[in-house]
Design goal:
Two copies of one chain form a homodimer. By secondary structure, chain A is an alpha/beta fold. Helix content of chain A is about 45%, strand content about 10%. The longest helix of chain A is centred in the C-terminal third of the chain and has 22 residues. Chains A, B: This is Aminotransferase.
């Protein structure tokens, strides 16, 4: 019989998707060029030329049977070695290929990490504002989601609220830096404090607490932002990565999970991942794409455009009277809405054909997400609309 | 904390994998050419030239951003249309693109199908001999596995045993034709009888019973075998397919699920699949591979070698005194072991460097699986060993 659980999900509204749909319909009405769509986190720059070139090369220089044949469920050993080497060099880690598990994007990596270090019924802590898909991801693993409210002045961690929520039922925390939707990068001060707190709570509770670090925006780091690698701060860290953003390959569903070699039972955590795959039916990821990202591990798309878009938007919006914590990376920013009701605010924005996502979707009302993974000229064209929007609110106040 | 459930799976022995490992170690000792490894179902013929050519073409003729960007979770519409059209033409079906869901191989398709039409705690019926991974697949969906013993004289369905097992808790059946490990294709007589029985039981129980048809070997059909498409016989059928075998792309993890348009709530079943993806972290499959199989939907690898291997092995083994139901497709056969204890038999075979998998692994003792997806010359070279093995048993009897 049709599953009630999944059928019920059909009626849950996905706000982001709805707004993107509205923008699309509006574009059909008045033309693409008159619509300012900042609703979706879809990379706007193509994969670097080298990616397609690498695919051509692999097809030409490797026996066909070898390219497309079954690989180990954990991923091709040579690819895991290439990626481990890159991480070790960049972040001073000590990964062996066996600590890595190739996954179907960050979603796949998270799906495995969540199941590997928790039992159904455990609590998992996430920090507002958070990516809305964390809800189905964690519910799918049978976990109870405990949300730490945002520190809206910095979007670093609200430690007082976190401490209140830490209890023996918590076996994992999920962080996301650079953050979707705020673009904030957790500072080394924050990560140091977080590590100290978790070490203390582990001792107190008598069991490990794993930090699951969702890092698809890791390479989208802006000038002057400190590069912080959470696993460097806390042993029990599982890093989840995707090449969706860094190489603009979101459709290829390719990423990995890396267990910190210093984590408790590190090797066993990596080893259970293929077992998890067997139970969810997600056995491995395209061998051709594995071979490709292995060879392109140290490349990125032309990510500079995201920083230019951020600079332009941040200075303009601030000038127009918006209040916003400046992003350190990603292609998002998360200003305060100009009225407390962020849903009403985003609705009002659509009157100017500006499509934004209310903070409520990310568990953080009173804000809105602006996804600036769009061509630069769209940002330039949109600025007068943001100005008009601010003026409308100003007039109301006056 | 490390998940007990998945950690426990690490200690379960995977017999097929163990035997394949033994064969590999033995090959290192005495050389590949002296080892007769029939343990693994890994295609031995490469993907057709056209597959790699198609990938080159897609990379050259499609904007990069378009190839690799996010697609709908259900899969790219044009690809689902290409596949639906191919199925409609070949099997007289009436699929719309919306009835198809692109999945990470047959495992991914099954993972979604199982969850879409059952509730945790339901019973699912499988038929011995069955692919051992059905156990983790069904357990992962929270289902209780009910195994119908084999009709070892035909490997069609043992209907008496099936009827005994049908009860209101059964919401789905899982069939696999051509079958792994027997190579048997369910006849139209069998499927007609199965459909009639399920129609009757649906009425009696007052709820739908879905037939999940696992068909990765569909295109590996031997001369003279009737091509039967289960969805043609029974409305409530969900077809799960993979290009692993037909196009020799097992590493690319690409397949689909197709809901019979005549199934109860057909469209909703297809619609819940992307919801299921959200909870298991398996969101979609490589867009480049989707585009590729869409364009190559009607091609296959050079599958004739499997039939030649079957012919050669079947006639030789029968001559040596083995008893075997002749396969109608796939690249497997499932003869009776020459002693009742199939594990002891397969152990004895290893003394002759013949690596076979005991039927016990497939829920059907007293048999062994022979995977003949190997180069023809390996089959020719192995025949004297099978003869020697038979003679050893003959001498014991004399």
């Amino acid at each position: 019989m049709l599953s009630k659980r999944y059928a019920d999900m059909l009626s849950e509204k996905d706000i982001i998707f709805e707004i993107a749909g509205m923008a699309k319909r509006r574009a059909r009405e008045i033309g693409e060029e008159h619509v300012y769509n900042f609703s979706l986190g879809n990379p706007s720059v193509p994969a670097p030329e080298a990616v397609n070139q690498t695919i051509h090369t692999i097809l030409n220089d490797t026996p066909t049977l070898q390219i497309h044949s079954y690989g180990p469920s954990a991923g091709l050993p040579q690819v895991r070695e290439q990626l481990a080497r890159s991480l070790n060099r960049r972040f001073g880690m000590d990964y062996q290929p066996e600590h890595l598990f190739m996954a179907s994007g960050a979603a796949g990596a998270l799906g495995h990490a969540l199941r590997a270090v928790t039992e159904p019924g455990d609590e998992i802590i996430v920090f507002a504002p958070y990516f809305p898909e964390y809800r189905p991801y964690t519910q799918g693993a049978g976990l109870r989601l405990s949300v730490v409210p945002a520190d809206v002045d910095s979007f670093q961690i609200n430690f007082r609220a976190l401490e209140e929520r830490l209890n023996p039922a918590v076996t994992a925390l999920l962080i996301n830096s650079p953050n979707n939707p705020s673009g904030i990068v957790l500072s080394s001060a924050t990560l140091t404090q977080l590590a100290a707190l978790l070490e203390e709570k582990q001792r107190q509770f008598g069991h490990p607490i794993y930090l699951i670090s969702d890092e698809p925006y890791r390479e989208l780091l802006f000038t002057g932002t400190e590069e912080t690698y959470p696993a460097r701060f806390y042993h029990n860290t599982i890093t989840c990565y995707s090449f969706s953003k860094s190489l603009s390959l979101p459709g290829e569903r390719i990423g990995y999970l890396a267990v910190n070699p210093k984590a408790e039972q590190a090797m066993t955590i990596a080893e259970v991942c293929p077992q998890i795959s067997r139970t969810i039916g997600c056995n491995g990821t395209s061998t051709l794409m594995q071979l490709t990202v292995g060879r392109c591990a140290d490349l990125t798309s032309q990510l500079e455009i995201y920083e230019r878009n951020k600079d332009r938007l941040f200075s303009a919006l601030t000038e127009y009277g918006f209040s916003c914590v400046e992003p350190g990376g990603s292609f998002y920013m998360f200003p305060r809405s100009l009225e407390p009701d962020d849903v009403a605010f985003c609705k009002k924005a659509t009157e100017l054909d500006l499509f934004l996502v209310p903070g409520t979707a990310f568990g953080c009302p009173g804000h809105f997400r602006l996804a600036y993974c769009v061509p630069e000229e769209r940002v330039v064209a949109a600025l007068p609309r943001f100005k008009q929007l601010a003026e409308r609110y100003q007039r109301q106040k006056d």
